[in-house]
């Protein structure tokens, strides 16, 4: 349930990475009542983590919620503390360390979007790294070294090149991803050099259909570079680290 969400981490501030914040903020705060039970809304400030631009950008989004927020406090009697946000801005370093969970932010390169960061999660002897959006950077291999799971963005270059050839009038828009993203083969190289145990691809460009044949075509050539398992990530996937 969304009421369990109290912490949100941003890697950068492209709309596809922060556009859903209003929904997360409100639905985690409001109490939801069904015939079977009551899901109490968040009664503490939302903790927001991100690079140095986060408070300025997300703060403006929060200001735009103010009309809705005031109504929920005065009319629906929602908890006032839940209407607030506490920010942790950090490009490099530990941003969360409690209850055995340690989260480290580190810089990546998604220019012209700057700053952009990735996150390393450590818990119970296991490590997960989430790249955010980036070209290949040495920082990724450094922090992903020996990780149990690396969730890395990737685009398929031959597929993108084919689209450019098919739609030359859109060449500029279609070729831009190559300037600030990582190819599938580059992601495989990063995972192999870092000794990652499992590689999950996200942020697919162009997105393959959700079937085994399309996904296998999307990761073509990666197994020649990276010896571990490769998964084409999909929303709501779950991974158990043993």
UniProtKB/TrEMBL annotation:
Superkingdom of this entry's organism? Bacteria
Q: Per its UniProt record, what CDD domains does this chain match?
A: arylsulfatase_AtsA-like_MBL-fold
Which intervals hold domain Metallo-beta-lactamase?
Answer: 4-204
GO molecular function terms attached to this record: 3'-tRNA processing endoribonuclease activity
Pfam families given for it? Lactamase_B_2 (PF12706)
Q: What is the reaction catalyzed?
A: 3',5'-cyclic UMP + H2O = UMP + H(+); 3',5'-cyclic CMP + H2O = CMP + H(+)
Record flagged with keyword Hydrolase: yes
Q: Which UniProt keywords apply?
A: Endonuclease, Hydrolase, Nuclease, Zinc
Function as written in the Swiss-Prot or TrEMBL entry: Counteracts the endogenous Pycsar antiviral defense system. Phosphodiesterase that enables metal-dependent hydrolysis of host cyclic nucleotide Pycsar defense signals such as cCMP and cUMP.
The name of this protein is MBL fold metallo-hydrolase
Please give the organism.
Answer: Cohnella ginsengisoli
Taxonomic classification: Bacteria, Bacillati, Bacillota, Bacilli, Bacillales
